[in-house]
Each structure stands twice: as structure tokens, then as C-alpha cells.
Amino acid sequence: MNTLQPEFIEALYLKHKEDSLYGKWITYNDIKKIISNYDSKFLITKIGTSEDDRPINKLEIGTGAKRILLWSQMHGNESTGTRALFDLFNCIVNSSEKIFTEILKECTLVFIPMLNPDGAQAYTRVNANNVDLNRDAVDRVAKESKILREILEDFNPKFCFNLHDQRTIFNVGGTTNPATISFLAPSEDITRKLTKGRIETMSVIVSMNKMLQNIIPNFVGRYTDEFYPTATGDNFQKLGHNTILIESGHYPNDYEREKTRKYTFFSILQGLYYITNSISFNDYEEYFDIPNNDSVFYDVIHRYSDSNKDCAYQYQDLIIDNKFVSKLNKVDKISLKSKIGHSEINFD
Fold first, then answer.
1. How far apart are CA 192 and CA 211, in angstroms?
2. What pLDDT, in 10s, does the model give residues 246-270?
3. What are the structural domains of the chain?
4. What are the residue ranges of helices labelled H in the chain?
5. How far apart are CA 183 and CA 174, in angstroms?
6. pLDDT tens-place string over residues 215-230
7. For burial by CB atoms within 10 Å, which of 31, 105, 132, 169 has the most?
8. Which residues contact 277 (CB under 8 A, 6 or more apart)?
9. Residue 180 vs residues 139, 161, 173, 232: alpha-carbon distances, Å
């Protein structure tokens, strides 16, 4: 299996990381300032506007027959994938490494690096009309959902990368490690059967997991494959477009998700590299060796000698007076004996 070496991708990332994008609150204005940096190599097109009339852009590059569609910030408050995409754009524009020449020869890449700019501005999951775009794949009531489907139908990709963030509650099943990256090959129906498309999707995920296990062993999980009839990934998979879901999660002491951003970049690049260099996509069995996500974490737990007094807290990210604020909220009283705090404070 074609797997990139950790030292190679680490050096690429350190050299080409887009430093102007930092922190969890990434808005359209942030990417607008730098998107013109890429027009020397990418075809950049405004493909529509959001419900509140913010631009939605497409970046296209490559001449190959393998068509790949990647999008981020379908949920406006999930920006790790957007930051990782701009790190990748910098590599494509500025790196002389042959990996990028090979990818662009074999593949045609289309990126939508912020599908929900209204949600990004407000730092919300939903769009300006309170629609969750990731549950709007059937009705497509949102303008943003219509735009994504039009691109899908016009471009007809073999593979899609659907980039999300997941909550800090998740751990890798059977471990006390947070699920820093979680993968999913979405189901096509309620039976969760192994179709040709799911097998091909799993094959790419196996390659990404192999690479990450060399860098962050036991910090990679598998997101639930429960079938959601209105979800984007499930429907795109059913339509014949193999959809790889990447959920960027927590890494110890990384609430800005800068470490996770790096591992998201690593995952995307490994996925593209594997697709570029593969003729068939049948090595899927090890997908089921990736542990399922579990949910044992809280952000903070206060511990007492009398465990009945223990209490847990979770951060809530908010925009207050146009500033990003993380507020610590107490969780309703529950048993915490089997739970873990990313931070734990003993009071006795």
C-alpha cells in the first residue's frame, strides 16, 4: 500500500502551513484575503452565494481522469478542514515535490473551501435560515445545498472528501485517547451493506489510517456508520460518488485544533496520494480494525473524595461582541465514575 513517510509530510506541512488562518473561528473574510494567492495555478470561480449573499467559491486544478471533490465548513463552526485545505493549496502552488505533479497529472481536483459562509460568520452549525446542510441532501431547501449538488452533478467525481469537526467528548474505543481523527465510509442504506462504492471508500480510509498510525498511534477512530436518509455523505455514496468523511477531533491540550489541523492535512494528502497511485481499491478489510468512537470525555471534571460530588464541565464556543469566547458550562448531574476529563482537578 502506498503510504507517505511521516518525516516527508511533516516537513511539507511546516514549510507550507498557511499561518494567516489560525483558531477555530474562520470566516469568509479570512479566506477572501488570501484566495487570490492561488489564481496562478488554480481556476477560481464564484459558483454562487449563500442565503445572506456571501460568495461561495470553487478552486479547480489538475488534468487527470480521477475526479475528486473536496469541501469544508458545511457546518460553519467546523473550520479545521478549511485550514488544512489552505495548507494543501500552499503546497500545490509553492512546492516542487513530485508528489504534486503526479497528483495533478492523474487527478482533477475541485475544492469548495467554505460551503456555509453564513454559518462560519455566526459560528453556528446551520446556515442563515437555520438549515443543517448535512441533513438537507434530499430536500435541498438551502441555496448552499443546491450549489453543492450542482457541482456534484456537473463534475461527476469518483471520490469526495467531506470535512467536518467532531466534539471533544469522543475517544478511540477501548482506549483513553481522544479521537483526534475519525473516518467514515457512509452507508448507502439502512442495512449498511458492503457495496462496491463503500469498499472503494474504505480502501482509501485504510491507507490514511495506516499513515496516521505511524504518527499518532491509537488516536484514530471510526465514526458511526448508522444510515441517515437525508445526510450528504450517505446520499452521495448512494449516488455512486465514493464519499470519505473526515472528522477532525481533539488532541491533548489542543483546543485551537492546530495539531488536529496538521493531522487532517496529513490525512487529505495521504488520501490523494493513494488515489493517484492506485488502479483498484479493494484493500478494505482493515477498515474494520479501526476502533469505533466511544464518548467517555468531558472537558473538565472536578473530583472529590465523595464521588457523588464529582461534577463535569464542557466548553461552549460563542461569538460575543465580535470576539471568539469559550465558556465553561456545568453538565447536568450524572455519574462520572466511567468518565474522563481532558483536565481533572482534585479538591480533596
1. 26
2. 999 999 999 999 999 999 999 999 9
3. 6-294 (3.40.630.10), 297-346 (no CATH)
4. 6-16, 28-32, 80-94, 98-106, 117-122, 143-155, 196-213, 232-238, 258-276
5. 17
6. 999 999 999 999 999 9
7. 31
8. 2, 102, 106
9. 32, 17, 12, 22
